[in-house]
Amino acid sequence: MANTLVFLTESAGHESGGINPYAVGAIALGILLLLLLAVISFGGGREHS
């Protein structure tokens, strides 16, 4: 009986219902690309000193 309870708690602990890691990476990449485009567009009309 105890072995069954340990098995059930271990199998339930491995399941995670969190956010998909690929979605987090895609969101982070999108934010970084938007920031890169903002920096490029902000500095696009300036002369080099």
Structural account:
This protein is an all-alpha fold and 49 residues long. Helix content is 73%, strand content 0%. It is built from two helices and no strands. The longest helix is centred in the middle third of the chain and has 23 residues, at 21-43. It is rod-shaped. The termini are far apart. The model has no long low-confidence stretch (mean pLDDT 78).
Number of strands: 0
Structural class: mainly alpha
Give the SSE order as H and E letters: HH
SS field, number of helical segments: 2
The oligomerization state is: single chain
Tell me, rounded to a whole number, the average pLDDT: 78
Distance between the termini: 77 Å
Largest sheet descriptor: none
Which blocks of ≥5 consecutive residues have pLDDT under 50?
none
Residue share in helices? over 70%
Tell me, what's the shape? Answer: rod-shaped
As a percent range, the share of strand residues is under 5%
Radius of gyration, in Å, reads 24 Å
